[in-house]
Queue: 3 jobs
Job 1
Amino acid sequence: MIDFEEELKKFHPSLEVEDAEEAIYNQDLTDMADIFIKLSEKTKTEDE
């Protein structure tokens, strides 16, 4: 059985669109292009 009072204690409202957008864009995420750039820079410095 679901205890609604207990579930309400765990509830956290979702972010507004603007707040969610800001939270997402402020994360420093590495994508595949960043990885390839770092690898190519590393191989260039090792070749010198």
Job 2
Amino acid sequence: MKAADYKKLKTDVFAKTKDIRQFDKETGNYYKSIAIMSKRADQIAADLKQEFLESSQQYASSADSAEEAYENREQIELSKFYEQLPKPTQLALYEFENGQVYFRDPEED
């Protein structure tokens, strides 16, 4: 999923208290569910970081002057966009709650 797709999700940017009893429906185990969401959050964070680095490369300049750092509006807007996205943990939680995360247990196979 691209960062723009994550922006379209109907999830809050701010953390909310969740009922932990809801997490064991899919796996039968709270800890397994949290481990799955944690791994998914790591994947989302890595994807967003890679996408940000690729996007920011086009705005990179070879000059080291401090004035140019403040003048580069496109890079500032790009940074603001990524800062306003929900955190990877919240995105992983949203995906898990809505059945959008594929997982398998190697012990059960």
Job 3
Amino acid sequence: MSKNIPENQEKSLEEAFTELDQMLEKLSDRDTALEESFQVYAEGTKLLKYCNEKLDLVEKKMLMLNEEGTLDEF
């Protein structure tokens, strides 16, 4: 299902969100074994951390330095 994110390969946010949706479906499936649920949950938390870092980076790029040297939102 989901794979660990290699250090040298980045996913788009859309790909990561799609994968998170699939993980949520797997976790809500009553037929999913408990151990598999723990594994999916652990992978999901790693992927969520990745998404948060990507969103933080985008947010930082959205700030622009104005002529007075202060930051303005884009």
